[in-house]
Amino acid sequence: MIHFTKMQGAGNDYIYVDNRNGVVKDPTQLSPKISDRHFGVGSDGLVLISLSDKADVRMRMFNPDGSEAEMCGNASRCVARFAWERFFKKAKDEFDLETGAGIKHIVIHRDGENFKSATVDMGAPILEPAKIPVAAETNKITLDGCEFTCVSMGNPHAVTFVDSVKTAPVHTKGPDYEIDSFFPRKSNIEFCELVDSTHAKMRVWERGTGETLACGTGACATLVACVLNGKTSRAIDLELLGGTLHIEWREEDSHVMMTGPAEFVFEGTFEE
């Protein structure tokens, strides 16, 4: 039996397991089972929280298809709250998180003993085509007549601008775009609607998952694409289906800062 905690950040829900003792032996097999919304617990994936020899805590994230992702922004905030309350007993408000996309610095915002939000330093975006990766000479490509700006936040993203996220072809085009030959490691696909210089809306088709209510790395990539295309300022509120994230692309060091919620949903046990 595996004890788990379900958490969500802006509606992006994952199953979290304290794996410091190695209770999960094969996450690639467990993730599809436990993530299934009909026969399992139901989630956007599985996150293992464990010890790190490089940082204060480590996370590994697995998609519902069993594939391992490098990074998840919303999950990183949830891991931060989990560790803040259960590992550090609210005694440490800043710490480092090891991910597949490198070490991320976390700052917890609190109201007394109560968690308010977390800010994750997501690092600098990667814009070089070979490192995103995207099989093109620049980080801008065209699919079905639509221009996409490709960005990596430790995982690959392709952002396009639409008149309305309500009518964006997330489900009709997202699956094909994800696996297009432009993307050697597939890609997360973001559809962005501009509201004004400090406010935008976004829907996402996530690699290995499908549409989710939010994507933290996708939100960061979307702001970078907005700035690169002269669409918004360097700090915006980005409205996702599951909530709003505040994203800032700092000019002084090129780091993208993501601030948002992280909430406990319920606890349980799952028989493998």
How would you characterize this protein structure?
The structure is a single chain. The chain has helices at residues 27-35, 73-87, 170-178, 216-228; strands at 2-9, 12-18, 46-50, 57-62, 68-69, 94-99, 102-111, 114-121, 140-143, 146-152, 156-161, 188-196, 199-206, 210-212, 235-240, 243-249, 256-260, 263-270. The protein has 272 residues and is of the alpha+beta class. It folds into two domains: 2-121 and 260-270, Diaminopimelate Epimerase, Chain A, domain 1 (Roll), CATH 3.10.310; 129-254, Roll (Diaminopimelate Epimerase, Chain A, domain 1). The chain has an 18-stranded mixed β-sheet that branches. Strand 10 and strand 11 (156-161) form a beta hairpin. The termini are close together.
The CATH superfamily of the largest domain appears as Diaminopimelate Epimerase, Chain A, domain 1
**CATH hierarchy class name of the largest domain:** Alpha Beta
User: How many separate structural domains?
Assistant: 2
Q: What is the H/E string?
A: EEHEEEHEEEEEEHEEEHEEEE
What is the CA–CA distance across the termini?
7 Å
Uncertain spans: none
Proportion of β residues?
A: 35-45%
| DSSP strand tally | 18
SS-based class = alpha+beta
Number of helices: 4
Shape: globular
Helix content: 10-25%
Largest sheet: 18 strands, mixed
- CATH fold-level topology of the largest domain: Diaminopimelate Epimerase, Chain A, domain 1
The rounded Rg comes to: 18 Å
CATH architecture of the largest domain: Roll
Average per-residue pLDDT, rounded, comes to 97
Pathway: Amino-acid biosynthesis; L-lysine biosynthesis via DAP pathway; DL-2,6-diaminopimelate from LL-2,6-diaminopimelate: step 1/1
GO molecular function, one term: diaminopimelate epimerase activity
Subunit structure: Homodimer.
Subcellular location: Cytoplasm
